[in-house]
Amino acid sequence: MDDGDTADDIMDATYRALCTHGYADLTMQDIADESDKSKAALHYHYDSKHDLLCAFLEYLYDGFVDRIEDPAGETPHERLLSLIDSVLDKPDDGSEEFGTAILEIRAHAPYEPGFRERLTKFDDYLVDELEVILEDGIADGTFKSDLDADETAQFIVTVLTGAATERVTTGRPVKCTRRMLTEYVETHLLDGQQEVTA
Amino acid sequence: MDDGDTADDIMDATYRALCTHGYADLTMQDIADESDKSKAALHYHYDSKHDLLCAFLEYLYDGFVDRIEDPAGETPHERLLSLIDSVLDKPDDGSEEFGTAILEIRAHAPYEPGFRERLTKFDDYLVDELEVILEDGIADGTFKSDLDADETAQFIVTVLTGAATERVTTGRPVKCTRRMLTEYVETHLLDGQQEVTA
């Protein structure tokens, strides 16, 4: 087993341990119990739980990028809706528990610069991806020409973050958010004058 | 000192203790240390930290209702923007630490039905307040007649929740959210045909 496999095994074990124990009570032993490694072996690879969790956030980030890059669809409009769906639909089993653990980690970000830095990367990446699609759509006349692509992208990320927080906090399903975001895209971003000006 | 004053003192001490220690590490002793009561006196009023924190969420809820009910403004449009501002602008000193503690409590909601029930009340109240303003504005022609007041209110709450989460997680200030929500209200909710149809 090379180091890549070992790292993946530890990351998988961390995922399961977070789903089972949450973030606040998580110990290196809990992670070891979910893997075929000893606690000592974990400490060989990661100095501390903090280092392991920073590596885990990077591992999640790589998965997030794989999942949302190049969204399905032919047009900027379709690609925008695909991207929104990819973020709203969590792909994993046990995603409720995992979403909860991630919100705990988010709440800990002010105390842990290593967490904040990595969590910010998720938001920045998502803003950038949305911005590219919006700019493509402005250029080809799909979206309104006076749209501020950067601020609109940040606004959509805020909505998606709110939906994820509400899912954990109140258990509210995301389907209302999906419907309202779709409506926002269709009536607020799409260039209604397209046919007139074409 | 009557029981009301005692309860208020304990709530104030809980606020300070949460700002200082966060939620995860908070003990009854930390709260006692911020008050002029002993830990035993706190246990006389509240059986457990969980009970005290449920009472604290109810205390916050009362303050939230006082703060956002009857927002300033003559028209539904002005009242809607005032209400959004009241939620985005945190009134308290130490609000960054407090916002963090509240997000920790939110992340704990799935494990604590008492928390979830009380946190849901905040969102429900805010949705109801927004809905009343939206309905007033639909009735008087301020807002588009085909607006779904309930879903629009929920969408705005999702945006406000997202802004609060981002402030904790990435430190992003709320001013972009304020600008985009204002634009959303003006170009998406306001009835642009008002003068034509009036």
Automatic annotation (TrEMBL), chains A, B:
Residues 27-46 bind DNA. Coiled coil: none annotated. Pfam families: TetR_C_6, TetR_N. Gene3D superfamilies: Tetracycline Repressor, domain 2. Keywords: DNA-binding, Repressor, Transcription, Transcription regulation. Residues 4-64 form the HTH tetR-type domain. Transmembrane segments: none annotated. InterPro entries: BetI_C, Homeodomain-like_sf, HTH_TetR, Tet_transcr_reg_TetR-rel_C_sf. PROSITE patterns: HTH_TETR_2 (PS50977). One of its GO terms (molecular function) is DNA binding. PANTHER family: HTH-TYPE TRANSCRIPTIONAL REPRESSOR NEMR, TRANSCRIPTIONAL REGULATORY PROTEIN. This is TetR family transcriptional regulator. It comes from Haloarcula quadrata.
